[in-house]
C-alpha cells in the first residue's frame, strides 16, 4: 500500500508539471494550429526567472514561508511579457502558412531562447536552496509525501479547473472554441482574430512559465531541462489527442503514472516506456485518446 | 504551379551552371586545403540525404521530423560491416545500407503515410527518438552512447590503408563520394521528372483530385518515403567513414531538424535548393561555431528569418530576383 | 635524423622524473619574457574543446574558465619560452562535429596542442584522429574501459584522462570503511556507459570487502533527466541501507533535494561517488551530513599548505562567484603538463620541440597542479589522487563540504596499466 501510494504520488506530481506544459501546447494548437516546440523552453525560462525573483526577495527580507506568492507572480509576469512579444514579433507572420513553417519557426525560437537562457543564467545548476522543505512532509497511510509536491499538484488542479471554467463558461472561452472549430466563421462573425491570437498565445506561454516557476523549488534549473521536456510534452499531447485540453490532462496522468510504475517495476525499460506508449497510441488511435473533442 | 515553373527554368538556364559547380567541386582538393575538402566531403553525404529528403518534403509535401533515423541506419551499417564483420567494402556497405533502410522504411512508412501534416511529422519524430533510445539501450550490440568505430573501407576492392587518412579522405574517398552524389542526383532528377514524380506533385497539391484521377495516394507516398530513406542511408554510409565513429546523437530529433533546416534554407521548391542549403549550412556552421559560443542563437535567428521573410529559401530568392530582372528587361 | 631522435629519447629518459629539476626548469621559464634563442616568435596556438551545453555544460564551463585563467596568467608571465599563447575555442557537441572541429583546429588553425573533450563517445572518435593527424590531444575526461583496453593500446599523441571507474572504486572502499554494517545497497545511475561502468565496479569492489552485501535493485534514469520523484518512490520501495549514485552534473542537487524532501535519508545512507562535480549546488538546507561524497580529483578545501590551490580558488571565486570543481584541475593540469614538457624538451634540444617530442616527454611526466602533483603514466593515462569524505555542515559556506577527507591514490583506485583487465585486478586484491 505504502509503495503504491508513493509511486502514485510521484507519478501525479510529474503529471502535474507535464499537464501545465502540455496544456500550453494544446491551447495554442487548438486555436492557432501551431505545434509549439518552444513550450519546453518557456517552462525553463519560468524556472530560471522564478528562482531569480524569489532569491532576490528573500535576500531583501521577504518572509520565506510566503515565497509561493511572488513565485506565481513571477511565472505569470514573465509569460505575460514573453507571450505577446513572441506572438507579435514572430508568430503572427506565419499563421497563413503551412504547418511545416510554423513548426520550424518554433524550432528556431527554441534555439534562440536556449542561448538566451545560457547568456543570462550561465550553465551552473540554479536552485532556491531548501526553501520547499520548510513545509515539511505529510504521512499518508505510511507514505511520506513532501507537502510542497502536494501544493504543486493542487496548483496544477486549480489551474486545470480555471482553464476549464474559462473555456466553458466565459465569452473568451466561447470565442476560443469557436475559432478552434471554424476560424473563417469566427472571422465572419466579426471577432478580432488579432486579439484572440495574442491572448491565446500568451495563455499558452503563461502556462509554460508558470509550470516552470511552480515546480522549480522542488528541483533545480539546469540547462538541458527545456529540450528534455519537449519530448515528454509531445508524448502527452499525442497520447491525449492534439488540441484537446481533456487530452492534455489525461495524457499527462498516463505518462506520469506509467513512467513512475515502470521505474518501480522494470527500471531497465525506463528509457523506452514513453516511446512505446506513444507509438502504440499513434498506431492504434492516431487522433489520441481525446482527439475527437476540440479544446 | 510556381514550383513546376521554377524547376523547368532551372533546367534550362541552370544546366551549364550545374556542370560548372560540379566541376569546381570535383577539382576542389587540387587547389583547396584538406580541411575544406573534408567539409565538402561531409557536404556530399548531406547532399545525398537532403535530395532524398526533399522528394518527401518538397515534392510529396510530407514533413519528416525523424529522417536522421535513416541516415543513422546507413552510418551504423558502415560501422557494423567494417568493425564487427571485417567486411570493409564500400560497395557492400552501400548495398546493405540501402537494403536495411528500405526494409525499415517500408515498415515505418506503412504506418506513417496513413497520416499527413503534423501527425506525419510527429510519428516520424517518435520513430526517430525510439531508434535513438534503442541505440542507447542495446549497448552490447551498438556500443550505446559511446557508439562504434568505423574503419577505413576498401573502395572498388582497393585497400587504401597505407595512405595517410587525410590524403585518403581528400583524395580517393572524396572522388568516390562525389561520383555517387552525381549519379544519385541524376537518378533523382529522372525520378522527379518522370510520371511518378509528377504524380507525387499532384498528390501534394491536391490529394483528393489525384485519388480521383486514379493515383493511389498512400502507395505513392509510401514509395516516396522508401526512396528518400534509401537516399538518407547512402548519405549516412558515406558520412560514417569520414567521421570514423558513429554514435546515437546522429538520430536525435534536433539532427532531423537540421535536415529540414538545410532544405528550407536552400529552398525546397527547387530541385537543387536543398543541396544549396546543405552547403551554405555547413560552411556557415563552420564559421559561426568558431566565432561565438552562442552559435545556436544565430542559427535560430537565421531559421526564423528564412521562415518569416524568405520561405522559398536561397533558391527562391535568387529565382524571384532573376524573374524580376527578366521582367524589367 | 633517426640518430638524434634516439639520443633525444635517451636524454629524456635520463632527465625524467626528478620533480625538483622540473620545478627548477619551471622557475627559469617563468622569468623569461624576451624572445628565447631557437624559439619561433609567433604565438603558441592552443585549441580548446569544452562542452558548453546540455549535461556536460557544468564541468565544461568550469574547465573552459580555468583554461582562460591559466592562459592569462602564463601570458602575463611571458608565455611559454617567451611565446605568447593564443586560444582557439570550438565547442564540444556531437561526435561528428567534434571530429570536424578537431580537424579544423589542426589543419586550419594550426594548433600546437588541443585540450578538452569530456564525452566518451567523442573521445573514442577523436583519439584515433589525433594519432592519424599527429596532433597532440590532452583530454580532460572522455575515458572508459573500452577506450583504454581495446581501441588505443599505444598512443603517441593522445593523452587520456583517468579511468571512468576510479570514483566508483573509491566510493566502494569508503563505503566499506565508513559503513561496514550495511547489508543492502540500491543503485541509481544514468543509463549510459559511465553510469553502468560505475555501478559494476562499485559492486565488484564492495563485494570484495563485504561478500554478504546484497545489491537489491538498480535504477537507470536517462542522462539529462531532471525529475527524480518517481525514482525516489522506487528507491523507497527498495528500502536499502545505502543508495549509491554516480551522478556528476546538474542532476546531483535535484536528486539530493528530492530525496531529502521525501525523507529518504532518514532510513538510508548514501554514497555520491562523483557528486562533487556540482558540489557548490549541494546546499546545507537539503544535504544531510554523513553521506559519502566524492570530489573526483580536486577538492577545493584539500589543504592550506599548497599555495597553488589557495591562489586558484581565490581567483576563481573572485571572478565567477563559484567554487571550482574537478574539471578545473583536469584543465589546469593538461596545460601545465604541456608547458613543462615543452620547457623540458627545450633544455635538452635548445629549440622548440616537435609534437612527437613533446608527446614523449609527456609520457611519465609529473607536474605541480592544483590538487598536488599530477602526472601521466607511461601509457599516457592521467594519474592523480582522488578526494572523498563524509558530508559536513561545519564550514562557512551555504553548501556542504567533507570531513574525514580521504585522499585516494591512483594505486588504490586505478588499475596499474591500461591493458590490465579491471575485474581481474579487483579480484586480485585479496590474494
Overall form of chain A: globular
Instruction: Tell me roughly what share of residues is in helical segments of chain C.
Output: 40-55%
Count interface residues per chain for the largest interface: A-C, 47 and 48 residues
Query: How large a portion of the residues of chain A is in β-strands, by DSSP E?
Result: under 5%
Q: What is the helix tally of chain C?
A: 15
Spatial strand order of the main sheet of chain C: 7-6-8-9-10-14-15
Note down, in words, how this protein is organized.
The complex is a heterotrimer of chains A (295), B (329) and C (431). Chain A is mainly alpha-helical and 295 residues long. Helix content of chain A is 72%, strand content 3%. Chain A has one domain (2-284): ABC transporter involved in vitamin B12 uptake, BtuC (Orthogonal Bundle). Chain A contains 11 helices and 2 strands, in the order ααααββααααααα. In chain A, a hairpin with a 2-residue loop joins strand 1 (137-140) and strand 2. The mean pLDDT of chain A is 88. Chain B has a two-stranded antiparallel ribbon with strand order 1-2. The longest helix of chain B is centred in the first third of the chain and has 30 residues, at 2-31. Chain B is globular. Helices cover 44% and strands 16% of the residues of chain C. Chain C contains 15 helices and 15 strands. Chain C has helices at residues 2-15, 19-31, 57-76, 95-108, 120-133, 145-151, 166-178, 193-209, 229-238, 251-261, 307-320, 326-349, 355-362, 410-413, 422-427; strands at residues 44-49, 85-89, 113-116, 137-138, 158-159, 184-188, 214-219, 242-245, 269-272, 292-294, 366-369, 372-376, 382-383, 386-392, 401-408. Chains in contact: A-B, A-C, B-C. Chains A and C meet through helix 1, strand 2, helix 9 and helix 10 of A and helix 3, strand 7, helix 9 and helix 10 of C.
Amino acid at each position: 500500500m505504502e509503495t503504491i501510494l508513493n509511486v502514485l504520488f510521484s507519478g501525479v506530481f510529474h503529471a502535474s508539471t507535464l499537464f501545465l506544459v502540455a496544456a500550453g501546447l494544446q491551447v495554442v494548437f487548438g486555436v492557432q494550429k501551431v505545434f509549439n516546440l518552444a513550450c519546453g523552453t518557456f517552462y525553463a525560462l519560468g524556472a530560471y526567472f522564478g528562482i531569480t525573483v524569489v532569491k532576490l526577495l528573500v535576500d531583501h527580507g521577504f518572509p520565506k514561508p510566503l515565497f509561493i506568492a511572488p513565485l506565481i507572480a513571477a511565472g505569470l509576469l514573465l509569460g505575460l511579457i514573453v507571450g505577446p512579444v513572441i506572438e507579435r514579433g514572430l508568430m503572427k507572420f506565419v499563421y497563413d502558412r503551412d504547418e511545416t513553417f510554423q513548426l520550424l519557426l518554433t524550432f528556431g525560437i527554441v534555439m534562440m531562447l536556449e542561448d538566451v537562457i545560457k547568456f543570462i543564467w550561465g550553465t551552473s545548476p540554479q536552485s532556491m536552496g531548501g526553501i520547499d522543505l520548510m513545509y515539511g512532509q505529510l504521512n499518508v497511510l505510511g507514505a511520506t509525501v513532501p507537502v510542497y509536491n502536494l501544493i504543486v499538484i493542487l496548483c496544477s488542479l486549480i489551474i486545470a479547473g480555471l482553464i476549464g471554467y474559462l473555456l466553458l463558461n466565459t465569452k473568451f472561452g466561447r470565442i476560443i472554441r469557436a475559432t478552434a472549430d471554424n476560424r473563417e466563421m469566427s472571422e465572419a462573425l466579426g471577432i478580432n482574430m488579432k486579439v484572440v491570437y495574442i491572448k491565446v498565445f500568451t495563455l499558452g506561454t503563461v502556462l509554460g512559465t508558470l509550470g516552470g516557476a511552480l515546480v522549480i523549488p522542488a528541483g533545480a534549473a539546469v540547462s538541458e531541462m527545456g529540450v528534455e521536456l519537449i519530448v515528454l510534452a509531445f508524448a502527452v499531447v499525442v497520447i491525449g489527442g492534439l488540441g484537446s485540453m481533456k487530452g492534455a490532462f489525461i495524457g499527462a496522468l498516463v505518462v506520469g503514472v506509467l513512467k513512475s510504475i515502470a521505474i518501480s517495476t522494470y527500471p531497465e525499460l525506463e528509457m523506452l516506456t514513453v516511446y512505446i506508449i506513444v507509438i502504440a497510441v499513434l498506431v492504434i488511435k492516431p487522433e489520441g485518446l481525446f482527439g475527437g473533442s476540440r479544446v | 504551379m510556381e514550383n513546376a515553373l521554377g524547376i523547368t527554368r532551372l533546367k534550362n538556364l541552370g544546366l551549364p551552371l550545374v556542370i560548372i559547380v560540379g566541376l569546381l567541386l570535383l577539382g576542389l582538393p587540387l587547389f583547396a586545403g584538406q580541411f575544406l575538402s573534408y567539409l565538402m566531403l561531409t557536404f556530399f553525404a548531406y547532399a545525398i540525404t537532403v535530395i532524398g529528403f526533399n522528394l518527401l518534403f518538397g515534392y510529396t509535401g510530407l514533413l519528416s521530423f525523424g529522417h536522421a533515423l535513416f541516415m543513422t541506419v546507413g552510418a551504423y551499417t558502415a560501422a557494423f560491416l567494417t568493425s564487427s564483420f571485417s567486411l570493409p567494402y564500400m560497395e557492400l556497405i552501400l548495398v546493405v545500407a540501402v537494403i536495411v533502410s528500405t526494409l525499415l522504411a517500408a515498415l515505418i512508412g506503412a504506418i506513417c503515410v496513413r497520416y499527413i501534416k503534423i501527425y506525419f511529422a510527429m510519428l516520424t519524430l517518435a520513430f526517430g527518438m525510439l531508434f535513438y533510445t534503442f541505440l542507447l539501450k542495446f549497448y552490447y550490440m551498438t556500443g550505446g552512447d559511446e557508439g562504434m568505430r568505423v574503419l577505413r573501407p576498401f573502395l572498388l576492392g582497393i585497400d587504401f590503408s597505407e595512405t595517410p587518412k587525410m590524403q585518403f579522405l581528400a583524395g580517393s574517398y572524396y572522388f568516390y563520394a562525389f561520383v555517387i552524389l552525381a549519379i544519385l542526383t541524376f537518378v533523382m532528377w529522372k525520378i522527379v521528372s518522370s510520371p511518378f514524380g509528377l504524380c507525387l506533385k499532384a498528390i501534394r497539391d491536391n490529394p483528393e483530385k489525384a485519388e480521383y484521377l486514379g493515383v493511389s495516394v498512400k502507395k505513392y507516398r509510401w514509395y516516396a518515403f522508401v526512396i528518400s530513406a534509401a537516399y538518407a542511408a547512402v548519405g549516412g554510409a558515406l558520412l560514417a567513414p569520414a567521421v570514423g565513429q558513429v554514435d546515437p546523437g546522429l538520430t536525435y530529433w534536433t539532427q532531423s531538424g537540421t535536415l529540414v533546416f538545410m532544405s528550407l534554407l536552400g529552398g525546397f521548391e527547387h530541385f537543387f535548393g536543398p543541396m544549396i542549403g546543405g552547403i551554405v549550412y555547413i560552411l556557415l556552421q563552420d564559421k559561426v561555431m568558431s566565432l561565438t559560443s552562442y552559435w545556436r542563437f544565430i542559427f535560430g535567428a537565421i531559421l526564423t528569418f528564412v521562415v518569416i521573410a524568405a520561405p522559398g529559401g536561397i533558391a527562391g530568392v535568387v529565382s524571384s530576383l532573376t524573374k524580376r530582372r527578366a521582367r524589367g528587361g | 635524423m633517426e640518430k638524434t631522435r634516439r639520443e633525444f629519447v635517451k636524454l629524456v629518459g635520463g632527465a625524467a622524473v626528478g620533480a625538483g629539476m622540473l620545478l627548477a626548469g619551471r622557475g627559469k621559464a617563468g622569468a623569461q619574457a624576451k624572445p628565447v634563442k631557437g624559439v619561433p616568435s609567433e604565438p603558441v596556438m592552443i585549441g580548446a574543446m569544452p562542452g558548453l551545453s546540455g549535461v556536460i555544460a557544468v564541468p565544461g564551463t568550469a574547465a573552459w574558465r580555468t583554461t582562460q585563467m591559466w592562459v592569462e596568467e602564463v601570458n602575463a608571465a611571458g608565455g611559454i619560452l617567451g611565446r605568447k599563447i593564443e586560444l582557439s575555442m570550438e565547442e564540444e557537441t556531437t561526435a561528428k562535429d567534434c571530429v570536424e572541429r578537431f580537424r579544423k583546429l589542426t589543419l586550419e588553425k594550426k594548433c600546437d596542442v588541443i585540450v578538452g573533450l569530456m564525452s566518451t563517445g567523442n573521445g573514442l572518435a577523436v583519439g584515433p584522429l589525433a594519432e592519424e593527424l599527429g596532433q597532440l590531444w590532452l583530454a580532460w575526461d572522455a575515458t572508459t574501459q573500452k577506450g583504454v583496453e581495446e581501441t588505443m593500446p599505444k598512443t603517441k599523441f593522445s593523452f587520456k584522462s583517468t579511468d571512468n571507474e576510479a570514483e566508483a572504486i573509491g566510493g566502494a572502499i569508503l563505503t566499506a570503511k565508513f559503513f561496514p554494517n550495511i547489508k543492502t545497497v540500491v543503485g541509481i545511475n544514468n543509463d549510459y556507459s559511465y553510469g553502468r561502468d560505475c555501478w559494476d565496479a562499485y559492486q565488484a569492489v564492495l563485494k570484495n570487502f563485504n561478500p554478504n552485501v546484497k545489491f537489491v535493485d538498480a535504477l537507470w534514469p536517462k542522462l539529462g533527466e531532471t525529475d527524480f520523484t518517481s525514482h525516489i518512490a522506487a528507491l523507497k520501495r527498495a528500502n536499502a541501507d545505502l543508495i549509491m549514485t554516480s551522478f556528476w552534473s546538474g542532476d546531483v542537487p535535484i536528486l539530493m533535494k528530492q530525496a531529502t524532501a521525501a525523507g529518504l535519508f532518514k532510513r538510508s545512507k548514501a554514497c555520491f561517488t562523483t557528486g562533487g562535480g556540482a558540489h557548490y549546488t549541494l546546499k546545507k538546507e537539503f544535504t544531510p551530513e554523513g553521506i559519502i561524497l566524492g570530489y573526483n580529483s580536486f577538492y577545493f578545501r584539500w589543504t592550506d599548505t599548497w599555495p597553488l590551490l589557495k591562489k586558484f580558488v581565490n581567483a576563481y571565486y573572485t571572478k565567477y562567484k563559484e567554487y571550482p570543481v574537478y574539471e578545473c584541475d583536469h584543465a589546469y593540469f593538461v596545460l601545465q603538463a604541456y608547458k613543462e614538457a615543452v620547457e623540458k624538451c627545450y633544455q635538452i634540444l635548445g629549440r622548440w620541440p616537435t609534437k612527437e617530442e613533446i608527446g614523449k616527454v609527456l609520457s611519465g611526466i609529473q607536474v605541480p597542479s592544483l590538487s598536488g602533483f599530477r602526472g601521466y603514466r607511461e601509457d599516457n593515462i592521467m594519474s592523480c589522487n582522488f578526494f572523498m569524505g563524509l558530508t559536513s555542515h561545519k564550514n562557512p559556506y551555504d553548501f556542504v563540504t567533507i570531513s574525514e577527507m580521504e585522499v585516494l591514490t591512483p594505486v588504490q583506485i586505478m588499475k596499474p596499466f591500461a591493458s590490465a583487465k579491471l575485474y581481474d585486478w579487483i579480484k586480485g586484491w585479496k590474494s
